[in-house]
Amino acid sequence: MNLLRQARPDGFVLGIIAVAALASVLPATGTAETVLGWATKIAIGLLFLIYGARLSPQEAWEGVKHWRLHSVVLATTYVLFPLIGLALRILEPTILTQDLYTGILFLCLVPSTVQSSIAFTSIAKGNVAGAVVSASFSNIVGVFVTPFLVILLMNTSGDAHVDASSIVNIAVQLLLPFLLGQLIRPLVTGWLSRHTTPTKVVDRGSILLVVYAAFSESMNQHVWSSVSVWQIVAVVLTCIFILALVLALTYFIGRAMGLPLADRIVLVFCGSKKSLASGLPMASVLFAGQPVGLIVLPLLLFHQIQLMVCAVLAQRYARAHVSHVVGDAEPALRD
To answer: How far apart are CA 66 and CA 262, in angstroms?
Structure first.
């Protein structure tokens, strides 16, 4: 019976698959696409507002001071991932075309996600304060580091530039709601403690919106019609390999460093993610005049795979937390 319960499909994962399928059949276009974009931004802003309201200033400051955790997340994102991407050059051109390999390397250079990393950390009962700082800092640093790495490691024109509005968008959409949540915390903290459903709805709802928006955009750009089935399979398998390797390495690195479980959860979820929201705009600038649709295809696929895999891991961490079984406190990567 235990085995049957573990094999039962997770409702959240089924929801992600359903939303992806819906977007593939009925992608948002025109006015609906604009509305979806604003809805996603509002959901993400609300997510950070709630996190800010839930975290005490003392907890937030402890998150900022946790330099060991943040440094290893940054090293995973901007050192480990690029090394893996460079090593995978052996797949070109026999398994991956030049454009698809460029896409694989590019996905290894983009920043970590913000909203989904923090949402999964929250679901898994990890160190949310640490996740907020790690994910946000990784994204801000990536605005400068990712273009530099692309120019350094790829055969680009060298005229890539980063708009300062990217930093402003991060500040307005993520940090400002978080600070606002800190300000209104005395007014709402009691209510949020008694009612956990709103936080769960926003956690999961923001991720589902991101999935729908990503698949809608890929359908509207006709990305899927420009590659063969076997090429897509090769990219999917490569993405699965990269994610599995990074998840395993972050898990064992966290244990080797002696980090507490709550921080190891942050490392697993923040260190293994790649941001579609940051990656797509950067790709349009860095690869102007090149087949951007093909180059971002690996990032599109990796993004969906990481959401589904991490949804399962987060739910299993959460169940282990509720069960209070010490021996099963980290079942996610052992099974």
So the answer is: 12
* pLDDT over 70 at 6, yes or no: no
Instruction: Return the DSSP state at 126.
Output: -
Task: Give me the amino acid identity at 244.
Answer: A
The pair of three-digit structure tokens given for residue 214, joined into one six-digit string? 């990503």
Closest CA to 269 of 333, 214, 218, 197: 333
38-73 burial by CB neighbour count: b if 16+ within 10 A, else e?
ebbbebbbbbbbbbbbbbeeeebeebeebeebbebb
Backbone angles phi, psi at 252, to 5 degrees: -75, -30
Q: Give pLDDT tens digits for 197-207.
A: 777 777 678 77
3-class DSSP state for residue 299?
A: helix
* Calpha distance 334→9 (Å, rounded): 19
Is residue 131 within 8 A of residue 54, CB to CB? The reply is no
Q: How many CB atoms lie within 10 A of CB 96?
A: 21
pLDDT top residue among 44 and 63:
44
Alpha carbon separation from 26 to 23, 54, 211 (Å, rounded): 5, 36, 13
CB of 259 within 8 A of CB of 267?
A: yes
| Whole-number Å distance between alpha carbons of 287 and 266 | 32
Helix (H, G, I), strand (E, B) or coil at 153: helix
- Given a contact cutoff of 8 angstroms between Cβ atoms, the answer to whether 278 and 111 are in contact is yes
* Interatomic CA distance for residues 267 and 259, integer angstroms: 9
Q: What is the pLDDT of residue 335?
A: 40
The beta-carbon contacts of 278-284 under 8 Å, at least 24 apart in sequence, are 278/110, 278/111, 278/139, 278/142, 278/143, 278/146, 278/166, 279/106, 279/107, 279/110, 279/111, 280/217, 281/166, 282/110, 282/146, 282/147, 282/150, 282/162, 283/106
Does this model's pTM top 0.85?
no
Residue-averaged pLDDT of the chain: 79
pLDDT at 59: 59
DSSP string for 156-197: --S-----THHHHHHIIIIIHHHHHHHHHHHHHHHHHHH--H
